[in-house]
Amino acid sequence: MILLKNRFLLPVFVGLLILLPTVSMAQTVEVAADAAAETAPGFWALLFSKGGVVTWVIALLSAVGLPIAAIKLYEFYRMDIFRPSALEEALGDMRRGKTAGLGARLDALAHPAAPLIAFALSQSSAARLAPAVLREELTRRAQFLVRHLSRNIWVLELIAASAPLFGLLGTVLGMIIAFQGVGQGVGGTDTALLAAGIWEALLTTAFGLGVALPFSILAAVFNNAVDGVRDMVEDALTEILVRADSRSAKSSEG
User: Is 26 a residue whose pLDDT tops 70?
Assistant: First the structure.
């Protein structure tokens, strides 16, 4: 019940459920590779057998980020953020002065900015609030909307930034071990031992970059969508408030 009530812990729990079968599968692959030593092991078997703890940390980051990214994609798609054609059409009618029934039309849209714009239209036309008070209230609601849409994107940005660093850490640790073995004269030819140690160490860097790239792209896509909503809301609310100020100025002159 605690996991269901906390929107951040739920993706973490789902990520752990995704990671556990991966761990078991990797262990199975490792055992199979050891049993059939004459067969060259695959990339994943080498990665999880040679990468050490750093590889599992990167895998855990990926398992946590995948459900968060899936949830954000579903939310943005359901709220028509990627294709706000209906909202843009309604805003076009508003700019042309076709405001009859526009509030109800906006309230029926799935886009999260539509109810806020409908509220601004109704309050500005009814003049129930003072212009300064209305401006402050609309600013507060717009900021809350942007914070709500940006929720958990920082996790994807953190994974995109930290996964390559963890991969680099694993590579440095692996190369330290390789050079230590060469310095102690362990394992025959020094050149062959050093080459083997270096390419095994580079596996973690490749894994870290492979995890970071998709999360970096997803974070950029989500941030760009949020910026688009912010710009649309600022433009619409500014136009509504300017028209309200113009009407109040004309009425005061009259």
Answer: no
